[in-house]
Structure formats: structure tokens, C-alpha cells
Specification:
Layout (H helix, E strand, L loop, with lengths): L4 E8 L9 E8 L6 H11 L19 E4 L2 E4 L14 E4 L6 E3 L2 E2 L2 H8 L20 H4 L13 H5 L1 H5 L5 H12 L7 H8 L13 H5 L6 H24 L1
Parallel strand pairs: 1-5
Antiparallel strand pairs: 1-2, 3-4, 3-5, 6-7
This protein binds iron/sulfur cluster (SF4) and FE2/S2 (inorganic) cluster (FES).
The site of iron/sulfur cluster has 16 residues, from helix 4 and helix 6.
């Protein structure tokens, strides 16, 4: 094969007609700076219009193009094909343990249902200020990282506890919960802890760090979960002590 060519083996599966997934090879002539998402468009536009995959921003912001690329969960729009060369065919498959809608596109309904359960929005003090809720730069520090989550779903799809329980909130939802729990403008920390301090929340995390390993934004949902465990424990302890008095 020429140096400027690569073979992409894409996992194809249409649940309405296929009984099993299968691998389909596509040869792509590479251009300088080509990403895996660019290669998928090359296939879609010039070789096979039936190929399905998700994308939106093409800039690592929307989280839509997460998939398994050459054995690792990555964003297709942020992965340069040149970094994958020299190791044989480049395998592309959908996020693991997710319901496949078609080919590389998975169903995100359960993922977003999990996010919704943690009230992923700020509940500010009423009456609302005329312009905005003020937050000092130093007050923002604890949420500087979790705020960068792009909701790509990679962490939850890599979490073995989320595989075994569809009711477990999973790492992305628990990171979102932490993001609002630590927001100095939010007024419902107690309610937030009630939502996550249960067996479908933080206590189900077994600290396997799979979520940390796959996060394309290098976030740490495991740490956020442990910090919430501590907060939930302290709150329970304080409640007991108050009752004893
Ligand atoms: Fe994606 Fe990372 Fe957010 Fe999980 S924590 S949804 S892996 S960006
Ligand atoms: Fe938006 Fe890749 S297309 S993150």
C-alpha cells in the first residue's frame, strides 16, 4: 500500500437488517492533517453513503464523535490519522456497551437520562439578580475542571459498574453533580447530595479509574465521586450528632 493510503476497518451494524456486526474495509487516500472524522467523511462522500457516525462541531467541543479508534476510546475529530499509521489496518468501532443505532452511532438516551437525574443546572438564590449571579475567580477554581466536560459519554461507556446497572448514575452524571455541588452560586447542596448518596449513585463506584483513562478532556470523574462520598458521609455524621444532642 502507498505511504499516503490507509485502510480503515469499520464495524458495521444495522439492527434493522443485520443479525451480527461485521468489519468492512475502506481504503482512503490521506491528505496532510487528516483526522479520523475527515477520513470518515471521505468514505461517506465518495465510497459508501450508507455509513453512519455522529459528529457536530468537528472541534472537540460537542462530544458527538467519541468512538473506539485503533483500540482506544477517542474523539474522531481530534485524532490525526498520521498518529495511527504503521500499525496495520485502523479499526473503528462504536463506544462499547452502548446500544448501536447504526454502525458507529450509539443511542445516547440512557446516558442523558442519567445526566438529567442529577439536576444538571444551577439553582440560584431568589429573587434573581438583574444581571447575573456573581462568582469570584477563586470561587470558580473547584469547578474549573468539571465544567470542561463535553458529555461525550466515553467515561460511562467504559465504566463496568454502569455496564451492569442501567440505574447507576455513572461517572459523567456524577461529575456533573459535583460541578453544581461545588458551585458557590447554587442553593441546593443538600438536595444534590440526596440525589447521589445512594446505591445508584456514589456508593456504587468501585474506583476502577476506567473513566479517567478514557476521558478525552483528561478529567477525573473518579476523584469527583470520592469527594462526594466524603461530603455525603460528613453530612450523615453531622445529622446523627445533631440528633444525639
Ligand atoms: Fe466525556 Fe470526560 Fe465528560 Fe466523561 S467526563 S462525558 S469522558 S468529557
Ligand atoms: Fe464535536 Fe468531535 S465532532 S467533539
Amino acid at each position: 500500500m502507498a505511504d499516503n493510503e490507509a485502510t480503515f476497518k469499520v464495524q458495521r451494524f444495522d439492527p434493522s437488517s443485520d443479525s451480527m456486526p461485521y468489519w468492512q474495509p475502506y481504503k482512503v487516500v490521506l491528505k496532510p492533517g487528516m483526522t479520523v472524522l475527515d477520513a470518515l467523511f471521505e468514505i461517506l462522500n465518495h465510497q459508501d453513503g450508507s455509513l453512519a457516525f455522529r459528529f457536530c462541531c468537528r472541534a472537540g467541543v460537542c462530544g458527538s464523535c467519541a468512538m473506539v479508534i485503533a483500540g482506544k476510546v477517542r474523539l474522531a475529530c481530534e485524532t490525526q490519522v498520521s498518529t495511527l499509521m504503521g500499525r496495520g489496518d485502523i479499526l473503528l468501532s462504536p463506544l462499547p456497551h452502548q446500544k448501536v443505532v447504526k454502525d458507529l452511532a450509539v443511542d445516547y438516551d440512557l446516558f442523558f437520562d442519567r445526566i438529567k437525574r442529577v439536576k444538571p443546572y444551577m439553582v440560584g438564590q431568589e429573587p434573581y439578580p438583574e444581571k447575573e449571579f456573581i462568582q469570584l475567580p477563586k470561587e470558580r477554581v473547584p469547578i474549573n475542571e468539571p465544567i470542561d466536560c463535553i458529555l461525550c459519554g466515553s467515561c460511562t461507556s467504559a465504566c463496568t459498574m454502569a455496564w451492569t446497572s442501567s440505574t447507576y448514575l455513572g461517572p459523567a452524571a456524577l461529575l456533573k453533580s459535583y460541578r453544581f455541588l461545588m458551585d458557590t452560586r447554587d442553593t441546593i447542596p443538600g438536595e444534590r447530595l440526596d440525589l447521589i448518596a445512594n446505591e445508584d449513585g456514589v456508593w456504587r463506584c468501585h474506583t476502577q479509574f476506567n473513566c479517567v483513562e478514557v476521558c478525552p478532556k483528561k478529567l477525573n470523574p473518579t476523584e469527583a465521586i470520592q469527594r462526594q462520598k466524603l461530603k455525603a458521609f460528613r453530612r450523615k455524621l453531622l445529622g446523627r450528632r445533631k440528633k444525639q444532642k
